[in-house]
Amino acid sequence: MIRDLYKQQNNIFQSEVWLDFQKEAGREILDANGTFAIVSDIKFGKQFAWTQKIAPKLPITNKDLVFLRVEPESENQIKKYKLKKVTGHSLLAGQKSPKATRVLDLSLSEEDILAQMKPKTRYNIRLAEKKGVSVKISDSADVLYDLLQKTASRDKGYVPHEKSYYEKMIKILSNKNLGHLFLAEHDGDPLAAIFVTIYGELAIYLHGGFNDSKRNLMAPYLCQWEAIKYAKKQRCKYYDFWGVAESDDPNDPWAGISRFKEGFGGEKVFFPGTYDYVLSPSWYNLLTFLAKVNHIIRR
Question: Is the model's pTM score more than 0.85?
């Protein structure tokens, strides 16, 4: 079921619309043997490129890049090309997709999807409905950004993109019906907002923020449920919650949000992970060393 989750026809990160969005956001696009990669600056005028949820055909050569960050589908590619695993101490360690995620099977009926949720999650969805929380599709990047900022103030490890990034994302993807912002409100107060992409058979909960105000109304639960139902109506087969903690360690930085996502049921899925295909070993080793030194100094 899940093995082909990010096959080509489901990978929005390789779609023309996503590339248009990235270009509008000021990103350079590189064609890596037929796979599109987003180019980003590092230091000293150097650059790297990232192919999200896919790995291009290797080997490749590019004198302008220090490395290509890839997400291979199999262990064979990792061994064959001696790819370097991205860890918490790697260069630009934050630039990677989650290795573990939780995926809902949308081929089930709404009743069956609810039935496989944890009782507390079902209760919270019904509570939000009973208390008058409503969810609508919105195009307000202002509201989303405000809620993301509030989330970042509570979660010190989370850093949102610049506001213009969300403005362009909502405008471009929603115009093509490939992504929508779901906004949960109560008496006109925005309480939760999530941006969900829809491409092929796959819906992805990509961004989300919520307000601590009226927390007892459980708005994030209803917001997710309405997005799940919408994705099902769009004939998506899967709903990807986009990242959970790899382990059950209660001290994991992702433990809280993972418990929230786990409440909706589904299956926990692991990917091979994110790896670097090094194109300039000397620069890669130098920049990695400087990143480690900087990490030690900031501790």
Answer: yes
